[in-house]
UniProtKB/TrEMBL annotation:
RecF/RecN/SMC N-terminal domain mapped to chain residues: 3-136
Subunit structure: Homodimer.
Name by which UniProt lists this protein: Chromosome partition protein Smc
Binding site for ATP: P32, N33, G34, C35, G36, K37, S38, N39
Record localization: Cytoplasm
Species this chain originates from: Thalassotalea marina
Function per UniProt: Required for chromosome condensation and partitioning.
Family: Belongs to the SMC family.
Description of its domains: Contains large globular domains required for ATP hydrolysis at each terminus and a third globular domain forming a flexible hinge near the middle of the molecule. These domains are separated by coiled-coil structures.
Length: 183
């Protein structure tokens, strides 16, 4: 599984439609302070279902929508699409046999969110489901940010267990059990 590119429009500082390609091997994003490097990572976590404004460095969930600049008016919605290479079949679920999987999230000023898998409308849950156990999720270890390592080292045993369970691939089964028990 590999992230091939990300398309942003109206998301934080990326007001105009922007495509960021990720070539094989390694991609480094460099630029001066405030140019939008961290906003790209916020975009990835947002599409994967992040539901806390604080974790996206904002106060409200609609803060991810471009809010205007000296020479530009604010826009009405934010949209981000992630395109994954799924040749390995790592992403399971109804799209398991697809070589490419596109995941998209959209939000408008009313705070209405829409989610899409390969262009078809779906629930947030459908997206979080296919990534469970892959190590990639809004708060999973696939994304290591500043401070993540020290937080891991200092975490309580219960918090550490969540990471270990995700790495071991059992978190999706726990989630399903919780679901069944709640029915
Ligand atoms: P650093 O090197 O300091 O970590 P960075 O490249 O990671 O910087 P980001 O934090 O990604 O920078 O980008 C911050 C910029 O994004 C700020 O200029 C901020 O004004 C802009 N920004 C964030 N949210 C919005 C928004 N909703 N609308 C417009 N601009 C926004
Ligand atoms: Mg940054």
């Amino acid at each position: 599984m590999r992230l091939k590119y990300i398309k942003l429009a109206g998301f934080k500082s990326f007001v105009d439609p922007t495509k960021v390609p990720f070539e094989q091997q390694m991609t480094a994003i460099v630029g001066p302070n405030g140019c939008g490097k961290s906003n790209i990572i916020d975009a990835v976590r947002w599409v994967l279902g992040e539901s806390s404004a604080k974790h996206l460095r904002g106060d409200a969930m609609t803060d991810v929508i471009f809010n205007g600049a000296a020479s530009r008016k604010p826009v009405g919605q934010a949209s981000v699409e992630l395109m994954f290479d799924n040749m390995s079949g790592r992403l399971q679920g109804s799209l398991a046999n697809r070589n490419e999987i596109s995941v998209r999230r959209l939000v408008n000023r009313d705070g209405q969110n829409s989610y899409y898998l390969n262009g078809s409308k779906c629930r947030r849950r459908d997206i979080t489901d296919i990534f469970l156990g892959t190590g990639l999720g809004p708060r999973s270890y696939g994304i290591i940010e500043q401070g993540t390592i020290s937080r891991l080292i200092e975490s309580k045993p219960q918090e550490l267990r969540v990471f270990i369970e995700e790495a071991a691939g059992i978190s999706k089964y726990k989630e399903r059990r919780r679901d069944t028990e709640n029915r």
